[in-house]
Write a structure and sequence with these properties.
heterodimer, A: alpha/beta, 5-stranded parallel β-sheet, 21% strand, B: mainly alpha, Sodium/glucose cotransporter, 25 helices, 72% helix
Chain lengths: 157, 556
């Protein structure tokens, strides 16, 4: 039923929380796990400078070693967990506005299921911080499995 | 010296058409920023689709030219005549040093932020923190001038009192930056440059032509006015002594090379060749405004005298500081040009102020979010945390700048010059020695930066704070400075003339007295100024890292 499962990750505990679920489903269906790290252009702008966004757009992401390390660490977690189950894993890095980049990736790569973590924020916090997961949920037609960080697990945020 | 709050001669009222012009301008920045942010990421991977020299040059021009260039420069010439030229000389000469010694070398080092360079070059988190702190301080002082400029010209368009006007303009700018940092994207900067240069040159040409001052070259023709304007404008060293002239020009020159928001542009370009040519184009685009600025000042002063019927000479109670700061807009207003046209000139000033504020606030947010938070406090910080910290920094700094701008200690141009002094004293020696003398080490850099900060801060405490703090003011007495001799030789506006050489000497002396930096670092420095060309997307660290068996940098 599922051949390609996408796990978007930013390396946070919230994101890692969803990995177990994704791996579990993937092993049931023998699906390929795609780990995607999106370089958030907003984060790049605020922490490295807007010029660096231009640098990424010029196709020079490879020379930005620190960003690649962060990405590798985040997708590496997914790779390791999936490897434990002998699953096939593909790691991807892209850049843009996270929700849009995820949607685009989904469209271009025949993904059948998206599994992602959520902070479960509500009220004012949600307004200020927004939610990538919520945007993905609203903008794709795919099944999206949202794993709430406050759920059964005891992993801290 | 405290500056009068608003320009009496300015026509302060709400004007519909200029307001629409400003609204459309802001909306265009928003749209460009949004489109840039969400633009399809597909093209992203096409290497070589780089930003060209000219576009990058325009971005340098917009990032660089703030309200201080647009308004303050003409204001200083209008108020202090010959002394104002120190700013034109200082703000352009620095680019030659940048071009020859820093632009391409910085590109080779290939880091992200100015504190990144300092931290990595001197292998010291403390040096990184000091550089980040200096960056914040520069952005703060520099931005006060921008807030002031936006408030003053905003009054012509929207007609609010000066304080609410500053609050409104800063809220818009800061709000924009907190929502999206994309105001500083190269495309947006290029548009901001185009708006500001068209508005300024249109102002000069139309005022000059309609008033019969000039025809095709107002940049030169204004000379004919000199005899009418009086000696106080053209005679050297009447308004400020020789020493201050030199000190100001020197500070502005070295400050130019130490400004973090200017240098970051060179890290990102495709190659060192593009870095050099961007620098040249940047200077050319800047000169387009600077050549015309004294002409606008001369027209403004003459029109001021004709309109008010009094001498414009500030020392005789003529033009006030605030009036000088808006002389560019005042000249257009006195020339009886239609309000939409005067509004366009005012909008250009806003574009200049907004572009620079964007550059400064983003360097401030990166100093906190990247250099302090991620590098020093929480290496595991997620992107989202960085965004939050960056936004928080922008809002906090925006509030601080806004409040300070209510009662600024000096004219726009002078405020900005304080920031240049700081950059010239603290950061320029680190960049210059760091790139050119491989034996500069951590101890030397720390000693130099601490001393530089001390020199600048004591200069501010000595000459500026007595205006604000009663106890200091009383202690300062008539002279306005706690230690008049220190104020005379190390004034905040020209602190670098003594400060920078002292910091150089101390950094070198301490470096010589302490162990040499690691070989790895030295190789990186050699690579930065080696005559051998480097590959397009290489950095010095790559080359040094790649070269196995103790690789030889190209100039060994």
């Amino acid at each position: 039923m599922y051949d390609n499962i996408l796990v978007p990750t930013d390396g946070s505990k919230t994101a890692e929380n969803a990995v177990d679920q994704a791996v579990d489903i993937a092993s049931k269906y023998g699906a390929t796990v795609h780990a995607l790290y999106v370089v958030d252009v907003d984060a790049t702008s605020y922490s490295l400078g807007t010029e660096q966004v231009d640098r990424i757009r010029q196709g020079n992401l490879e020379e930005m070693t620190e960003i690649n390390e962060d990405a590798d660490e985040a997708t590496g977690y997914v790779r390791d967990r999936a490897a434990e189950h002998g699953l096939e894993v593909e790691e991807h890095i892209t850049a843009g506005e996270p929700a849009r980049a995820i949607r685009k990736f989904v469209e271009d790569n025949d993904i059948d299921l998206v599994v992602m973590g959520s902070h479960g924020r509500s009220g004012l916090k949600r307004v200020i911080l927004g939610s990538v997961t919520e945007k993905v949920l609203r903008r794709t037609r795919l099944p999206v499995l949202v794993v709430d960080v406050h759920g059964e697990t005891d992993i801290e945020e | 010296m405290t500056v009068p709050l608003q320009a009496e001669a300015l026509d302060i009222s709400f004007k519909l058409v200029p307001a629409i012009i400003v609204f459309l301008m802001m909306a265009s920045f928003l749209v460009i920023g949004y489109v840039f942010k969400v633009a399809d990421t597909e093209g992203m991977w096409v290497a070589g689709r780089g930003i060209g020299n000219i576009e990058n040059g325009m971005a340098i021009g917009a990032n660089w030219m703030s309200a201080a260039s647009y308004l303050g420069l003409a204001g200083l010439v209008a108020l202090s005549g010959f002394y104002g030229l120190a700013f034109i000389v200082g703000w352009t000469t620095g680019y030659f040093i940048l071009l020859i010694f820093l632009a391409a070398q910085m590109r080779r080092f290939g880091k992200y932020t100015a504190p990144d360079f300092v931290g990595d070059r001197f292998n010291s988190p403390t040096a990184r923190a000091l550089a980040a702190f200096t960056t914040l301080l520069i952005a703060y002082v520099y931005s006060v001038g921008q807030a002031r400029g936006m408030g003053l010209v905003g009054q012509y368009v929207f007609g609010l009192d000066i304080i609410p006007m500053i609050v409104v303009m800063m809220t818009i700018t800061v709000g924009y930056l907190a929502l999206s940092g994309m105001l500083g994207a190269t495309k947006n900067m290029a548009v901001q440059y185009t708006i500001l240069i068209v508005a300024f040159l249109a102002g000069v040409y139309v005022v000059g032509f309609s008033q019969g001052y000039s025809t095709i070259l107002p940049q030169i023709e204004y000379g004919a006015l000199m005899a009418d304007l009086g000696r106080e404008f053209s005679a050297p060293f009447v308004n400020q002594p020789f020493y201050i002239w030199i000190a100001t020009a020197f500070s502005l020159i070295v400050g130019t090379c130490g400004l973090p928001h200017v240098l970051v542009r060179f890290y990102t370009v495709r190659s060192e060749r593009v870095a050099r040519w961007s620098c040249v184009w940047g200077l050319f685009f800047i000169l387009l405004l600077y050549w015309a600025s004294p002409a606008m000042a001369a027209f403004g002063v003459d029109l001021f005298q004709a309109t008010t019927g009094a001498s414009a000479y500030a020392a005789e109670g003529g033009m006030s500081g605030a009036e000088g700061d808006v002389i560019v807009v005042l000249a257009a207003q006195f020339a009886n040009l239609p309000t939409w046209f005067v509004g366009l000139v005012a909008a250009g000033a806003m574009a200049a102020a907004i572009a620079t504020t964007a550059g400064l606030f983003i360097t401030a947010s990166s100093a906190v979010a990247h250099d302090i938070y991620t590098e020093l406090i929480n290496p595991e910080a997620t992107q989202r945390q960085q965004v939050l910290i960056g936004r928080g920094t922008i809002i906090g700094m925006g509030a601080l700048v806004t409040v300070t701008a209510f009662n600024p200690p000096a004219l726009i141009g002078e405020l900005v010059a304080y920031a240049f002094s700081l950059a010239g004293v603290v950061l320029f020696p680190m960049f210059f020695l760091g790139l050119w003398w491989e034996n500069t080490n951590r101890q030397g850099a720390l000693a130099g930066m601490v001393l530089g900060l001390l020199i600048w801060i004591t200069s501010i405490i000595n000459s500026v704070l007595p205006n604000y703090i009663g106890a200091l003011g009383a202690a300062a007495g008539e002279s306005g400075a706690l230690v008049p001799i220190y104020a005379q030789y190390v004034p905040p506006i020209g602190a670098a003339l003594i400060g920078t050489p002292v910091v150089f000497v101390v950094t070198i002396a301490v470096s010589l007295a302490t162990p040499e930096p690691p070989l790895e670092t030295k190789k990186m420095v050699r690579q930065c100024h080696s005559p051998e060309p480097m590959g397009q997307q290489e950095t010095a660290a790559d080359v040094v890292g790649d070269s196995t068996s103790g690789g030889t940098p190209a100039d060994d």
